[in-house]
Design a protein that fits this description.
The complex is a heterodimer of chains A (about 110) and B (about 130). With about 110 residues, chain A is α/β, with parallel strands linked by helices. Chain A has one domain: Transcription Regulator spoIIAA (2-Layer Sandwich), CATH 3.30.750.24. Chain A contains four helices and five strands; from the N terminus they run ββαβαβαβα. Chain A has a five-stranded mixed beta sheet. In chain B, strand 2 and strand 3 form a beta hairpin. The chains are: A alpha/beta (about 110), B alpha+beta (about 130).
Chain lengths: ~110, ~130
C-alpha cells in the first residue's frame, strides 16, 4: 500500500496522520511533509502512525530528523504509535528512548 | 532445495517488490506466520542498505538477491559497492539505524565483504516448520 498523508488540528496540535508503508521509497515524502510543517511555523506537530502497515529504518530516520528539526525551530514533536510490530523496531534501535512516543493522540496532545 | 533469484536496479522503488517476493517464498518454505513480519522487514533493510551503498557511489550494477528453501529459509543479498567513508546527516543516521535493526531482528545474520571484488554479502536465515510442495 502506498504512503498516505493527511493533516488535521487537534487541541492546537497539527496531527500528521500517516498510513500505508513508510520505506526507503516513500520516506522522502514523509520527510518533506514534516519539514514543510516545521518550516511553516507550526509550533506543535504530532505524527500519528496508527494507520502505518510497515515501516523500516528509513522511516525511523525521518522521525528522528523531524524531532531534531523541531528542537532547532522551537516546536514540540511527538509520535503516536500503539502497534506492537512498530514499537518493536523503536525498541530494537533504542529510539524509544530518544523520540517522544505516545500511545494515543489524546496523550500526545495533552503532554 | 529450491531457489528463487532476482536482480534489481539500485532504485528504492524496487525494494518493496523484493520484500513481497521474499515473504511469498518464506511462506511457501514454511517460515512460521509470526515470523513473516520480521522476514519482510529484514529483507527490506538488507535491500535498502544495498541500494544506498550503490547510490552513494553512483554504481548502476544490479543488486542480487537469492531466496532458498531448504532446511532453513535462507536469504542472500549481494551489493557491488566498495565501503565508503561515513557521511553526515540523516542519511548516515539511517544507515546506522538500519545496521542496528538488522542485528537486532535476525539471529542468524552474517555480513561479510565479497571474496572477490568490492561489495558485501548479507546472509540471513530463519527456521522452517513444515515443507510444502
Amino acid at each position: 500500500m502506498e504512503l498516505s498523508l493527511a493533516t488535521r488540528v487537534v487541541s492546537a496540535h497539527t496531527v500528521l496522520e500517516v498510513g500505508g508503508e513508510v520505506d526507503v521509497y516513500t520516506a522522502p515524502k514523509l520527510r518533506e511533509r514534516i519539514t514543510e510543517l516545521l518550516d511553516g511555523g507550526i509550533g506543535a506537530v504530532v505524527v500519528d502512525l496508527g494507520k502505518v502497515e510497515f515501516m523500516d529504518s528509513t522511516g525511523l530516520g525521518v522521525l528522528v530528523g523531524g524531532y531534531r528539526k523541531s528542537r532547532t525551530v522551537g516546536a514540540s514533536f511527538g509520535v503516536v504509535c500503539g502497534k506492537e510490530s512498530l514499537l518493536k523496531i523503536f525498541r530494537i534501535t533504542g529510539l524509544d528512548q530518544v523520540l517522544p512516543l505516545y500511545q494515543s493522540i489524546d496523550a500526545a496532545t495533552t503532554a | 532445495m529450491a531457489t528463487v533469484r532476482l536482480e534489481f536496479s539500485p532504485e528504492p522503488a524496487h525494494v518493496r517488490t523484493v520484500r513481497l517476493v521474499g515473504v511469498a517464498v518464506a511462506r511457501r518454505a514454511g517460515v512460521a506466520d509470526d515470523q513473516l513480519d520480521e522476514v519482510r522487514l529484514a529483507i527490506g533493510e538488507a535491500c535498502a542498505r544495498a541500494v544506498a551503498r550503490h547510490q552513494r557511489l553512483g554504481i548502476r550494477d544490479s543488486v542480487e538477491v537469492a531466496f532458498s528453501d531448504g532446511d532453513r529459509y535462507l536469504v542472500k543479498v549481494v551489493d557491488r559497492a566498495a565501503d565508503a567513508e561515513q557521511i553526515d546527516g540523516d542519511e548516515q543516521l539511517t544507515i546506522d539505524v538500519s545496521a542496528t535493526l538488522l542485528q537486532g531482528l535476525v539471529k542468524d545474520l552474517h555480513m561479510a565483504p565479497l571474496a572477490s571484488g568490492p561489495g558485501t554479502e548479507v546472509r540471513m536465515g530463519w527456521p522452517v516448520r513444515r515443507r510444502s510442495r
